[in-house]
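With this grant's support, we have settled on a layout for protein records. A representative record follows, to show the layout.
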Amino acid sequence: MEKNGGLQSCLRCGNMFFYSGIGKCICDSCKKEDEEEFQAVKNYIYDHPLATIMEVSKETGVRVIRIKNYLKDGRLIISDESPIFINCEVCGGSIKYGRFCRECADTMTNEMRNAMKVDEYQVGEKPNPTIRTRFLER
């Protein structure tokens, strides 16, 4: 859960900074470093599509946990030929990006829809035919 805006301590370096309340609670310096690391990983994978996650980490200097987070966040999508994958957080199956496989995501969506008793196409209030509608005259 994200914190509200205001003066916060960066989750990575510990420095204090003004946090807007949007996105990860990290300072601009760490955001810049994160973006540089992301670009290095992205470029390496583009040039070496069959590299393992350990090779990508070794060659780019980016920690494995950060590479996995890029995949979980959906910032990276690995090609089908690549040996890199992460595990679905529900069933443990192999996936190329995100947190859940398609089957688990569909199951969770249906369970939430059923629990909330929400019709797929229901928007706003349903009209009540027994109430007579009045319109204001100009």
The mean pLDDT is 82. Residues 9 and 87 are 31 Å apart (CA to CA). Residues 85-119 form one domain.
